[in-house]
Amino acid sequence: MQNIGEAISLAFALVLSGDGDLYRIVALSLRVSLTATALACLFGLPLGALLAVARFRGRAVALVLVNALMGLPPVVVGLLVYLHLSRSGPLGFLGLLYTPTAMIIAQCILITPIVAALSRQVLEDLNDEYAEQFRSLSLTRLQSIRALLWDGRFTLLTVALAGFGRAVAEVGAVIIVGGNIDHLTRVMTTAIALETSKGDLALALALGIVLMVIALGVNGLVQSVRMSAVRQAYA
Fold first, then answer.
1. Structural domain range at position 155
2. Is 5 domain-assigned?
3. Which letter, b or e, does each residue of 80-112 get, where b requires 16 or more Cβ atoms within 10 Å of its Cβ?
4. Is residue 60 over pLDDT 70?
């Protein structure tokens, strides 16, 4: 087995050489995770805003449920999606099992509760601050939700970032519904697990390095956007 120093050297060599397999895996990982994050925000942000603004019977139960779903076990989600997409399942006729689409569905289910719960807290704080102003303007609930989403857009970037981080690091659900098929459904996390089990530490570390760089890069981008917005607001 290679020692750690040799594995790290080989990992950087793979990253810098533009290895085709490596960048193919990275590209699929980003496509799947970014799509899942966008869909989760599409569903989760309005749901979070509704829970922040609306007052209805059973709201407390809904909040507990949304918060509890943040801890959904990935393998359970993967199993449920698998049962629905398998040939004997209700959606088996779509032929989506072991495709990137199935992986996107699993990731979206996992991170939508995270987006909804975090955005609900952010928007509820904003709503408490603006509630009197909204009443004076006689805004409808939908108008209030739109105003809160727009005013909190930069803070909500952090919520989306949390969802993306959860998606791109996921392995349990995606390996169940995607199958970790080479050149088709193999993403960074499943490839790291596979290559580590095979003893190919160089490729596993290379993927790990790329994963960390992506995480740092996305965090840096979000922070720069937020700082730029704050500077413009106080300019």
1. 19-234
2. no
3. bbbebbeeeeeeeeeebbbbbbbbbbbbbbbbb
4. yes
